Amino acid sequence: MHVVAVLALDGVSALDLSIPCQVFAIPTGHDGTPAYEVRVCADRAVAATAGPVEPFRISSSHGWDDVLGAGTVVVPGIPHDQVPSPRALRLLREAAAGGARIASICTGAFVLAHAGLLEGRRATTHWRFADVLAERFPGTRVDPSVLYVDEGRILTSAGIAAGLDLCLHMIRRDHGAAVAAKAARMLVMPPQRTGGQAQYIEYRAPEEDTADLGDTLQWMRGKLGEPLSLADIAAHAMMSRRSLARHFRAQTGTTPLRWLLAQRVQRARELLETTALPLTRVAQECGFGSVETLRHHFARQVGTTPSAYRMAFRV
User: Fold this and answer.
1) What global pTM score does this model have?
2) How far lies 271's CA from each of 183, 213, 281, 309, in Å?
3) List of domains in the chain
4) pLDDT in the model for residue 200
5) Residues facing 48 on adjacent strands
């Protein structure tokens, strides 16, 4: 069983800590059991924080040294200006050198940076602290506009709830889109959020913008196999194209046609995993029209071909 070690440092964010424990413990295995064993690794009883409050302390039967036996190590956030324990940093470097996948949630990216694991890499963290991370660790290419960054063996996520997106992404990498979708249903959240954390940086009062695209998004999902133009989408939303573009970016972080494309690729992943439909049918069902178009967009978003993906994740 794939072991996920959650490194609990003093001052750990209570929500960040609970996210990987909850997500990876979901019974996503084909026999109805969890596909991962989750271990919280704490050197001693440590204070968990919720903003400025320390609501409780936690202890565990697993110590920091147990991260060395894990396939994945998740580092939840701690106060961004806190200097991590040198021993914890050494263990993270040893785990990475041993082939473990290292992931951070929110300000956990600062811990990875202190360990030298983000040097020369692209990374993200909570948008409030992105500039601080970039200034303190100039060798890291900080991207404040995304929910998570996957650099292969090193992954980072944005603020707090983006840890859910990152954990689902790792399940998707390990077991495919259908298993990740099953976990997302248990969490009552979308399998894959389109857009980035930039959409949450500015707050817009409800009275300033009352448009809700929920019905239109659902309508678009129901018509993935049909040709949809921007005019069609605007007509359903009863908006001008300009208003549609503005509301769409505010609610999804992207444009209508890019959102539609992402949904079509997601549907193609599900069909490749769960059916034996030939690629021509998959392309038609997802609105790509031809296998060549399917291959082009699938490779750009998933990084492999539809045939190779089916061989890897076909149930």
Assistant:
1) 0.74
2) 17, 26, 10, 11
3) 2-187 (3.40.50.880), 205-315 (1.10.10.60)
4) 56
5) 12, 56
